[in-house]
Amino acid sequence: MSSNLGKLWFVEDQTEGVSTSLRVDQVLFQGKSEFQEVDVMRTPYGLTLVLDGKIQSCELDEQIYHECLIHPAMLAVEDAKQVFIGGGGEGASAREVLRFKSVERVTMVDIDPVVLRTSKEFLKKHSAGAFESPRMNLVVGDCKAYLEQTTDKYDVIIMDLADPLPDGPCWHLYTKKWFEFLLTRLNPGGVFVTQSGPAGVVAMRDVFTPVHHTLRSVFPAVVPYSAHVLSFSDLYGFNLAYSQAPKKPFGSLTPAEYDAQLSKRLSDPEKIFFLDGLTSTAVATLNKLQRNAIAAETRLITEDTGAFLYV
Amino acid sequence: MSSNLGKLWFVEDQTEGVSTSLRVDQVLFQGKSEFQEVDVMRTPYGLTLVLDGKIQSCELDEQIYHECLIHPAMLAVEDAKQVFIGGGGEGASAREVLRFKSVERVTMVDIDPVVLRTSKEFLKKHSAGAFESPRMNLVVGDCKAYLEQTTDKYDVIIMDLADPLPDGPCWHLYTKKWFEFLLTRLNPGGVFVTQSGPAGVVAMRDVFTPVHHTLRSVFPAVVPYSAHVLSFSDLYGFNLAYSQAPKKPFGSLTPAEYDAQLSKRLSDPEKIFFLDGLTSTAVATLNKLQRNAIAAETRLITEDTGAFLYV
Amino acid sequence: MSSNLGKLWFVEDQTEGVSTSLRVDQVLFQGKSEFQEVDVMRTPYGLTLVLDGKIQSCELDEQIYHECLIHPAMLAVEDAKQVFIGGGGEGASAREVLRFKSVERVTMVDIDPVVLRTSKEFLKKHSAGAFESPRMNLVVGDCKAYLEQTTDKYDVIIMDLADPLPDGPCWHLYTKKWFEFLLTRLNPGGVFVTQSGPAGVVAMRDVFTPVHHTLRSVFPAVVPYSAHVLSFSDLYGFNLAYSQAPKKPFGSLTPAEYDAQLSKRLSDPEKIFFLDGLTSTAVATLNKLQRNAIAAETRLITEDTGAFLYV
Amino acid sequence: MSSNLGKLWFVEDQTEGVSTSLRVDQVLFQGKSEFQEVDVMRTPYGLTLVLDGKIQSCELDEQIYHECLIHPAMLAVEDAKQVFIGGGGEGASAREVLRFKSVERVTMVDIDPVVLRTSKEFLKKHSAGAFESPRMNLVVGDCKAYLEQTTDKYDVIIMDLADPLPDGPCWHLYTKKWFEFLLTRLNPGGVFVTQSGPAGVVAMRDVFTPVHHTLRSVFPAVVPYSAHVLSFSDLYGFNLAYSQAPKKPFGSLTPAEYDAQLSKRLSDPEKIFFLDGLTSTAVATLNKLQRNAIAAETRLITEDTGAFLYV
Q1: Are residues D177 and D300 in contact, defined by beta-carbon separation less than 8 angstroms?
Q2: Is the pLDDT of residue D4 over 50?
Q3: Given D11, D44, D227, which is nearest A15 (Cβ)?
Q4: A134, B136, B171, C238: which one has the fewest Cβ atoms less than 10 Å from its Cβ?
Q5: What integer pLDDT is reported at residue D302 of this predicted model?
Q6: How far apart, in whole angstroms, are the C-alpha atoms of residue B269 and residue B101?
Q7: Cα–Cα distances in Å, from D220 out to D71, D175, D241?
Q8: Model-level pTM?
Q9: Chains in contact with D, where contact requires at least 3 CB pairs less than 8 Å apart
Q10: A2/B26 CB distance under 8 A
């Protein structure tokens, strides 16, 4: 069998006129839920979850993304017990939360039962037992509706959702009004973190900087940071928002202090894949282009307009 | 969900520097047998069987290919009772043979149980009940070994195999020696037909003309013909070889005579998809480029060398 | 230098979810005229003219297209002297017209000076001296306006234009009203021929059959025909419309009669590339699918609506 | 003109089964020199230089690559006067060197006159006048032969070459023997820097870590570092080798100290695009995966074998 014959390829558009192609070695699942297209395939990046044609999580480097999304927020709250995750369907965010010994309960609300079922069946390594944990409170539903219907408060709230694309379903979860609401659902000293889209030279202004700017209009302190995620074809951005001005915001610990925190807080500190103390200093340091873009950003994401408001 | 996001594509190389991409809407089966990679997918061409990265059979137009492969040979033998098919795993060749009322038994020998099993499960429309026919004698095995181990003779022998690629498994089934052997397994007046690869301006010399030339060195008469098969991205070629010089070789019947033959011989003549009498006159008429290429061909495919022999 | 490194590819969408990729070995010209994007590149199909991303003419097989477009119409008029070509910018249609000894003057009106200039510079083999012929009357302009402003009549009118895409510039040159007008510009016994888009199993209803149906509503006789053009990735369709019912419509000559006509009419009959007498019988014979589609067609292309009118 | 019609794409293979496609809006130059294929095209990343199918330099982000390649080395030598660049054909490395006021002469030796000529004509912004500088000593030739034929010594030697691919032309410029030779051509306190290929999770072991390991076997101190270069589709690696153990190796200055150095040394410190003091701390901090890979590396690149030697 000749290897130069036909092949199956997954093609993901990145920015205008730029796309990435991944050879597909196996398609494990293809389906369409009420909310999105769901695909699980084996690619050169390992088992790969794709939602609506965008790579969400690859075996190869999902730990980079998930350690970056979860660890800085968890470390920001000394004794984080109650954690909320909006989205995060494949279970890797919950997996990272559950590594923290202080956690008593992680409430994860994902809207899509197809993603949950598929992940449980095909992406066991991604969740690594999180779904079976006695500390896991998994809810299938709309995380906005869920939070609005309770008065529960959390030490850490994590949004692991799709980007706020103009026509996408998640737009309203990145607005000023929503951030104001979330602030009321944090325990004293609690933090909120959200994935914030690509953070590289071309795309950083699409989501990363307006989300940062919007959070800054609500929270007393917000730390933006980024890491390269190869399977996302770019630097990837995050914003960590503090309900109270932190003494030691993410990035200000020395590597040794950060590593000591990990050792103290994690049940398995020796299994850090990417984000150890030294790495954390680089991840928390935006490059000049990113700092300039954030400084120049003036757009607020508002719910009323469903669009960016320049102020 | 935006349609301009990532997609799954099947890419098939045609000739050097030319490829065709088909959107893959569903992958129904992916597997690797002892012999080849086997894929069944839903594409804009309908259910599509792919072996080793080459499209074999698309719901859209497989009837064009299979009517062309089977009907001229079957019509060439007035009362064809015993028919042999080498390959033809998805069952469509057998389906076409079984449309002929005179057929008592079709012996189909395909080497790949994975292709057979997959076709039965996912490509029911392709075989249309052929596998369940009491006239079907399905053998899983090497069609060469099978024929060599019996003394059975046939009215019509059909080779529905992969192209004789230099490193492929089917090379030895296109050689002069093999054709000489097949001639001994035909009943008096019997015919042999083989798919013969692409027949368009670029690729017709790869398989179509050397197979024709090789057959001509063995059989008293050989009719080459071709039809456009969109899913094969080219004109596609066939060679029909007669064990005795025919009175009415393929292409010499008037449209009315051909249609009358179909009416008499087929159980369902009204269901002709493509190759009716008028169409047959065009299919049997090579264009000037094809005739020139055949006239200029001097290569014999020999078993000894496993390569083309220029004579 | 490794051949598996990056390459330049031209990607042409065929139908929904199907595209063809050609390696680009050299880009000779890229430009944007007032009317369209114009590219000349060297591909595995030789020098290739591309307008608005659609292949128009490849060195490899443009003779198939151009002999099919021009010869049947020219042969239909015994002593064709005055010929009109709408479009045909790269000069190959004019080249084929000028092979006919009877021609006194070919008036070719192409709207795009960039196409003309580029073709003269880079595609000399395509025009083969046509632009320099003393019998050539080249006009840069809108062929519709040109014809409406004169009272000249022609023995043969040829439309070698882009397809009548809903938003394209050529729609109005495929309407019933325009065809009625053209009929008034034909000398007695004159004919009109137009390229009519792809004619294969998927796309034949896009242009081929409605153009045929519309012509049939205007002219006393119309012969549809098709040939496989590899670089167009499909069978390709034509419609030849007669101002008077012909004694010998295209396809009714025996191969010998057709070849005799070519010998008599052409200055270089020995240089026929594709469409000789035998080939003409196949080209003029639609397959069953095409005949069915034409029989079922009821759409008229009307100028008023700029859309198909079902009648 | 519909934007969903055919387009021209540049496809670059990254790693096995992963490729990046860039829309090509204009091809300004395509040629083949004695050494390589040379292309200049306009893409969504701006003017783009491609050698042998690999993107070398994009208007969008070449400053990230070139500031990272040049600045740390230049800042490492307090009063760098004599600088040598091997390769660097498009002139951007020289441009960055010439921003340093102390530089008296930059000797740039590039083997390919086609790259030089093409860059001067089409990529003026990349060189920004460097080729016309009175301090520029441009030599067309083999940088290895050049250095071997003189006894000149340099304060800074920069290798801006293609990766040491097994069959590529640059392999011998990454060997232990060559590094030993370069060490003899550095003035006291001089440094050597070389681009070192991709540094991301998949590809960092291809070039980055063995080059580091080989340099470490020759130089008393080597600092590896990396930055994300979007147009290279990965983190990109560099190695800065010191002829004497540095007091302040790259990465050990505070941001303020680094910025102060830039202000003192550059003629236009306000034009820093990417690598300012804060950014330098992140660039010099390898992530955990990179540190692990470097720690585990045992391969030396030797000239004798033209291959990696495991030691």
Answers
A1: no
A2: no
A3: D44
A4: A134
A5: 87
A6: 11
A7: 20, 16, 8
A8: 0.92
A9: A, C
A10: no
